[in-house]
Specification:
The chain is mainly α and 52 residues long. It has one domain. Helices cover 58% and strands 8% of the residues. It has three helices and two strands, in the order βααβα.
Length: 52
């Protein structure tokens, strides 16, 4: 299992292409389990533009 950093998730969700996002996409394609911790979850939610 890999822990995905906030910056990688944000770049991935925004459609930004860089080396770290490519590695994350490879992990997804290869069914490698990944996760986030509570702090990363909170940072993602705080950056959301809508409440949904």
């Amino acid at each position: 299992m890999i822990l995905v950093d906030t910056s990688v998730l944000i770049a991935f969700l925004k459609g930004i292409e860089n080396e770290k996002v490519k590695k994350f996409e490879e992990a997804i394609q290869n069914n490698i389990p990944f996760g986030i911790n509570n702090f990363i979850y909170q940072e993602i939610l705080q950056g959301a533009k809508i409440d949904a």
